[in-house]
Amino acid sequence: MTDSQTIAKILTESLTYLLKYRNQTVVIKYGGNAMTNDKVKESILKDILLLKTVGIKVVLVHGGGPAIAELLDKYQVESQFIKGLRYTDEQTAHLALTALAGAVNKTLVQDLIQLGGNAVGISGIDGKMIEAQQLSDELGYVGKITNINPALIEQIVSTDAIPVIASAGIGRDGQIYNINADTAASRIAGSLKAEQFIVLSDVRGLYADYPDEESFIEKIALTELSKLVSNGKITDGMIPKIEAIKYAMEEGLGRAVLLDGRVPNALLLELFTDKGQGTLITS
Ligand SMILES: Nc1ncnc2c1ncn2[C@@H]1O[C@H](COP(=O)(O)OP(=O)(O)O)[C@@H](O)[C@H]1O
Ligand SMILES: CC(=O)N[C@@H](CCC(=O)OP(=O)(O)O)C(=O)O
C-alpha cells in the first residue's frame, strides 16, 4: 500500500470514533510534569486541536506544579506537600496564582493559537467558575471546591475556541484559594457531565505497586480503587488524582482515564483506537 492509501485507510477507520465523539464533552487535565518538555507539549496540544477540529467539545484544565516551584524558588519561598497538596500561605497563594493563571495559562493559549487553533484562557476565579472555601487550617489557603459554575466554560466551548482553565478558586468573601488541578478538572468534568475525563500526567497510569511495571493496571472499577487507597498503594501526586476521580464518579462521571502525556499522540490513540493506552477507571 502507498503512503497515501494508508492515510486514506486510517482516516476511514477512524470514522466510527469521529462519529462517536462528535459533540461530546471531553475534559482533559493537563499536569505540569507533562509540560516541561517542549516536544511532548507540542504533541499534546496538536492532539487537543485535532479533537476540537473534528467537533469534540474539548475543555482543557491545567496544573503547573513545576512552574509554581520555579517561581517559589526564585523568591526563596519554601514549599511542602501534605498528602499531595501544597501547603499555601499568603505569599505562596499569590505566587501560585501568578504562575498558573499567568505564564502557564497564557503560554498554553499562545501555543494553541500558534499551532493554528483558537483558545481562551481563564482561571477558576473568572465568573466565579470555581467557588471554594478553606479546606483545613493545616494547609492554609488551599481551597475545597463548594460549587462549579460552568456557564462561562459552556459559552467558550460553543465558539471556535478551547477554554484553557487555570485551577484557582474564589471564596464568597473574595478570598483566593490554591486548588489542586486534578480536583478542579474532575469537578468541572462532573459539572459538565462530560463523556470522557482524561488525566494527562508523566506516568503510564496507575500501578498497584508503584513503580513495579508488572503491577500496571489497565482497567479498574471504583470499588477496587478504594481498596488500593486504603492499603496505602497510592501516594504523593496520585492521591489528589484518585480522590478527585472518586468524587466526580460519585457525582455521576462514568469513566476516567489516566494517560501518559509523554507518549506521542496519546490522546488520539486513546480516543480513536480500540486499544486504550493508560488506566481506565470505571464507576
Ligand atoms: N500507585 C501509583 N501509580 C502511579 N503513580 C503513582 C502511584 N503512587 C504515587 N504515584 C506518583 O504520582 C505521580 C503523578 O502525580 P503528579 O506528579 O502530581 O503528576 P502531575 O504533575 O501530572 O499532576 C507519579 O509520577 C508517581 O510518582
Ligand atoms: C493545592 C495544590 O497542591 N495546588 C497545586 C496547583 C497546581 C497543580 O495541581 O499542578 P499539577 O497538576 O502540575 O500537579 C500546587 O500548588 O502545585
The appropriate CATH architecture is 3-Layer(aba) Sandwich
In one word, what is the shape? Answer: globular
Question: What is the count of β-strands?
Answer: 16
CATH class: Alpha Beta
Bound molecules: adenosine-5'-diphosphate, N-acetyl-L-glutamyl 5-phosphate
User: What's the N-to-C terminus distance?
Assistant: 42 Å
Strand order of the largest sheet: 5-8-2-1-11-15-16-14
Our Rg estimate from Cα atoms comes to: 18 Å
CATH topology: Carbamate kinase
What would a concise description of this structure say?
The protein has ten helices and 16 strands.
Strands, helices and their partners?
Blueprint: H1 3-13, H2 15-21, E1 25-30, H3 38-53, E2 57-62, H4 65-74, E3 81-82, E4 85-86, H5 90-114, E5 119-123, E6 130-134, E7 143-148, H6 151-157, E8 162-166, E9 168-170, E10 176-178, H7 181-191, E11 196-201, E12 206-207, E13 216-217, E14 219-221, H8 222-230, H9 238-250, E15 255-260, H10 266-272, E16 279-282
Parallel strand pairs: 1-2, 1-11, 2-8, 5-8, 11-15, 14-16
Antiparallel strand pairs: 3-4, 6-7, 9-10, 12-13, 15-16
Q: What does this protein look like?
A:
- It is globular, with a radius of gyration of 18 Å.
- It is an alpha/beta fold and 283 residues long.
- It has a single domain (22-282), classed as Acetylglutamate kinase-like (Carbamate kinase, 3-Layer(aba) Sandwich).
- The strands form 5 sheets. It has an 8-stranded mixed sheet with strand order 5-8-2-1-11-15-16-14, with helices on both faces. Strands 3-4 form a two-stranded antiparallel ribbon.
- A hairpin with an 8-residue loop joins strand 6 (130-134) and strand 7 (143-148).
- Helix content is 41%, strand content 23%.
- It has helices at residues 3-13, 15-21, 38-53, 65-74, 90-114, 151-157, 181-191, 222-230, 238-250, 266-272, and strands at 25-30, 57-62, 81-82, 85-86, 119-123, 130-134, 143-148, 162-166, 168-170, 176-178, 196-201, 206-207, 216-217, 219-221, 255-260, 279-282.
- The protein has 10 helices and 16 strands.
- The mean pLDDT is 93.
- Residues 31-33, 63-65, 68, 85-86, 96, 142, 167, 178, 180-181, 237 line the site of N-acetyl-L-glutamyl 5-phosphate.
- Residues 31-33, 63-65, 68, 85-86, 96, 142, 167, 178, 180-181, 237 line the site of N-acetyl-L-glutamyl 5-phosphate (X2W).
